[in-house]
Amino acid sequence: MKRTLLACAVACYSALNLSGCVLGPDFQTPATPLAEHWAPTASAEGHSQGVESRVDPRWWDSFGDQQLSALVREAQARNFDVQLAASRLEQSQALRRQIAADTLPAVDASADYSRSRNTQRGLNDPSGRSGKQAFSLWNGGLGISWEADLWGRVKRSVEAADASVRMAEEDRHGVQLLVIVQTAQHYIRLRGTQQALRVVQQNLQIARRSLELTQLQVKEGVATDLEVSEAAAQVSEIEARMAPLQQQSAQLINALSLLLAREPRALQQQLQAAAAVPAFGADVPVGLPSELAQRRPDIRRAEARLHAATASIGVARADFYPRITLSGNFGFQAMQLSDLGSWGSRNFAFGPGLSVPLFEGGRLQGALQLQEGRQQEAGITYQKTVLRAWHEVDDALVAYQAGQRRRDSLQQAVEHSQRALGSAQQQYAQGTVDFLNVLTVQNALLANEAALVESTANVSLSLVDLYGALGGGWEAWSEAAVPL
After folding, report:
1. What's the pLDDT tens digit per position in 217-245?
2. Domain 21-103+149-321+366-480 belongs to what topology?
């Protein structure tokens, strides 16, 4: 008995020493093909631009809009997509724990009782009663089994599972970032729509005053019914612009409600009052090129996918080699319950099991080639993801700076149109120009003011796109990650 236990101990020790051999390539973080410096388009004086400083992980607070910040916080807490991503992360972690269990021995306890009677015509009756009487059989014991990870198959499987957990975690980060960006975009569009509606209402008041002035001049004989009709048509045309804007405003509020996992019109009272479009006047910190791969969830996920594919090659290569399983059991067996547990009722068995793949018909080679192909695909995907991220950042910087220039030009156009309308109304009141001149100038003012509101919102939206491209924002909730 002692010699048997000693032999088992020596075998286990030898297996543990041999388990240091790990097949397959070791993963190395690929070089990131980014430029050494950001190269944003030169910005005009007075315009904000990208600067190489740390990206604020709570960049939405930089807009100085408490309503926006509150909506982002609530969206992160309530959004269904964020909850689904967290659930998928937990599932991935559970699968990793299941795979990692193979690194430890499996121990089972068993106990059973049976009442039976053997045939009198059979070859053997273990009860010694030749099948003439029924007998009871009591069993109880422990069983243990463990695969000696000689070639690192289990280790590589756990490594691949760890990478899969990181993929799920980066998926969650990506969803968090997307929800932040969508919340900010919907909110900015809502405020832009409300400001556009305010512009229409102001122009409607101007048109109504012009109509009243025209009606008064008709009574005095200095205007015609045609001019009255033109003024009335102008009022109706401006009034017609209000309904689509009101509809768009209601839909944007509902879109925000959906992001916050709330029922339609739940935010109506909270957001129906018009407010200014959130603006960001300072220079935008865009960080360093080397930091982009550390922030962007899609790049981090692509790297984790490459890691998982690399580790899976080791698993496929280990399948070519023998597997040794150490197993044993120790227990008691007796025909009487009172004898169960006595030293004489003991039974045991210990020993290794060997499984060697001799002929698989090309299955193992095909599995290895498949994993190598997946690693190659993951490597190409990583390079593509990094390059796409660089393009998105550069495009967002260009759009942000171009939007500022357009907004400033439209601001000047509005100022000129306002002066032109005042002059045209004064000349019309004096009878030096007809009403068509007033209509033309007012339509130009309305178009320029609407374009200015849209441009102002687009500048803020392009800034949101820039921060989305930079990948910042999910870090603010990283402490909520589910631990392994």
Report:
1. 888 887 788 888 988 998 999 899 999 99
2. Outer membrane efflux proteins (OEP) (1.20.1600)
